[in-house]
Amino acid sequence: MPAPSSLPAPDPSAPHRPRSRTDLFLSFTWLALQGFGGVLAVVQRELVDKKRWMTREQFVEDWAVAQILPGPNVVNLSMMIGGRYFGLPGALAALAGMLAAPLVIVLLLAALYGGVADSPLAQGALRGMGAVAAGLITATGIKLIAALDRNAMGMGVCIGLAALTFVAIALLRWPLLWVLAGIGGGACLWAYRVVGATPSTVEHGA
């Protein structure tokens, strides 16, 4: 009778990886074709829940970096993921997937919309889509709150920073640059302090 294998069972929650640059291109093309307005919800579902290319915690961290870089955040994220697995060719493949098909569709829609732009029906449809997009983004943000449990700063501090950011942008109407420099810079310094203090705490307790 053969001895049972001593190898651990694969962890179904562990992140997978893209199979090739073609897989990157096709995956981000499909993602881009779904991203009408509420792209954050689509990105999180495709990359974390379906493909499992990253954990929820990794997605929150990478999305934060993509958010503060110049340019569209989802394009930044696609290039970060492509570059991580396949270097510059991977980043370019992911970028092409994000832009190629949507570019054609946007040009066609722009040509069609030019003829009905003044129609009350078209304007009402755009307002409705804006409300749906806001709802999708809000729902995804609430869903990702659980990932903050493993954040070095702790759930309470993260929620406090999120509340401060909301007040600064939605109520006080601060420019985004001020919010990033003020609240974002303060959060970075606090996280650096917390993470830097962790090794010394472990050493003293050993």
From the spread of the alpha carbons, the general shape counts as: globular
What letter string, H or E per element, gives the SSE order?
A: HHHHHHH
Structural class: mainly alpha
N→C terminal distance:
45 Å
Q: Give the percentage of residues in beta strands.
A: under 5%
Total strands? 0
Radius of gyration: 21 Å
Discrete helix count: 7
Quote the average pLDDT: 80
Helix content: over 70%
Largest sheet, strands/sense/barrel = none
Which stretches are low in confidence, meaning pLDDT under 50 for 5 or more residues running? 1-11, 200-206
Spell out the blueprint of helices and strands:
Elements: H1 21-34, H2 39-50, H3 56-68, H4 73-113, H5 120-143, H6 155-171, H7 176-205
Task: List the defining traits of the structure above.
206 residues; mainly alpha; 7 helices; 73% helix; globular; disordered C terminus
Question: How would you describe what is shown here?
Answer:
- By secondary structure, the chain is mainly α.
- The protein has 2 domains: 96 residues, no CATH class; 50 residues.
- It contains 7 helices and no strands.
- Helix 1 packs across helix 4, helix 2 runs parallel beside helix 5 and helix 3 crosses helix 4.
- The radius of gyration is 21 Å and the shape is globular.
- The N and C termini lie far apart (45 Å).
- The N terminus and C terminus are likely disordered.
